[in-house]
Amino acid sequence: MKNEWVDTFTGSVRVKAEGKGTERLINACVRNGITVWNVKKHSRDTATFFIKLSDVKRLRHIARQSECKLSFVGRTGLPFFWRRAWRNSGFWLGLFVFIAIMFLLSNIVWNIDIEGAAPETEHQIVRELKRMGVERGAFQFLLDDPETLQKKLTERIHDITWVGVQWEGTSLHFRVVEKEIPKPKQPASPRHLVAKKEAVVADLFVEEGQPLVSVNDYVQKGQLLVSGIIGVEGRTKFVPSTGKVFGETWYKSTVVLPLETTFHVLTGKSIERHYIGIGRFSLPVWGWKKPTFTHTVIEREKRPFRFWKWDLPFYYERVIVREAEAVKRSYTWEEAFAEAKKIARRELQAKLPEEATIRGEKVLHQSKESGKVRVELHYTVIENIAVPQPIVQGD
Amino acid sequence: MMKKWRQQMKRWMTEKLELPADIMMDLPRITMVGQIHIYIENHRGLLAFSDKELRLLLRNGQLLVRGEQFVIKTILPEEILLEGKISQVVYIEEEKR
């Protein structure tokens, strides 16, 4: 038996022979080494059989000497398939172009809609988005992912508290919650003012209520400073007391600072590379430069390509190689002490409310440890110590 | 290749094993698988073929195969494989002259 699948590569032809002596024709073929298969007789004078495409020429030669009329009724195999595919190349090209356009359009931002923002805020958001490259017609895979967009927007626009970013097909959807500036509320219920912590009263500004302490008084935590009950006995009145009581308070802080620190700083030089990948394999498409950096920080960002509404297994990857530099900082003992004090002050200021001021600073203790300095500091701070406490009106 | 090898084999066997010479006498060798296949070696050409009948030339005489839906699957100078529903295999002897 012969291998029939070989014929699918080389191609085969179905021949129809008409006339007397089809048997003789077949005998002649066989004797001349033409492979013949699937011979069928349809009527007395017609037969069909298959031969190889490469044997067609020889068959013609043999048929000239017989009384049969030949016609080719079928072609199968790869050569014919290619010929047909070539003839239909317009169709294939069209299909390819269609898919390509579809693919391109699927990866474009078609719509940006912003919901829940006032016109000015919306305008601001649109402007900010444009600066980040987010606009109608931009390629989706070149943009930041929704989380980053969200972060950047909330950072850059002060009027919004929260923005939800979501892809809906090819449109980008922003849901905005604007900041509402609260109206100053008038305290309605009667209240006292009490001390937030122990302090020495430095100053008093009482708008309403009965002050119970005076300057230079030492107060405990929770002690009543301004009473909300005014008037002489028998004709008392409850008022919501307001005002500020500045007290001198004390803070202690300890700072440990090493003399030598190394840290990595980006120099600002970077190389971008672009890849297109599938699975774990990625193919570089742009950016061939080899970085000459000794220390690098590598950032990777992967975005899938989309088709219609699905994410394809292909992805676009941007790799940013940034140059890093190791910087060594070293202090002398004196510098370290000074720096430690500065740090302590900065830390304290960050902790305190805005209207508080640091009045005095005293070094309690400073020591040199192995490669480190340790500084203990004491601060006197003037701050508002009054906090409201509602008066519970019983009977 | 197969044929050559087979002929060498035959010669060797008749010489060494002293087999009867009629194996060497160019007689057809027919293999049938049920009714559906018939495989004939050592024929001398196709005489007539239709979907109900196959007539083959042998060295002396003819072989007639009758049945239905005949298709010649393969045909080589000395071999033929026929498919279909075979009902009869008949030898037609040549008249002695």
TrEMBL record, chain A:
Pfam families: YqfD. The chain crosses the membrane at residues 90-110. Keywords: Membrane, Transmembrane, Transmembrane helix. This is Sporulation protein YqfD. It comes from the Bacteria. The gene is yqfD. InterPro entries: YqfD. The lineage of its organism: Bacteria, Bacillati, Bacillota, Bacilli, Bacillales. It comes from Geobacillus thermodenitrificans.
Automatic annotation (TrEMBL), chain B:
The lineage of its organism: Bacteria, Bacillati, Bacillota, Bacilli, Bacillales. It comes from the Bacteria. This is Sporulation protein YqfC. InterPro entries: Spore_YabP/YqfC, Spore_YqfC. Pfam families: YabP.
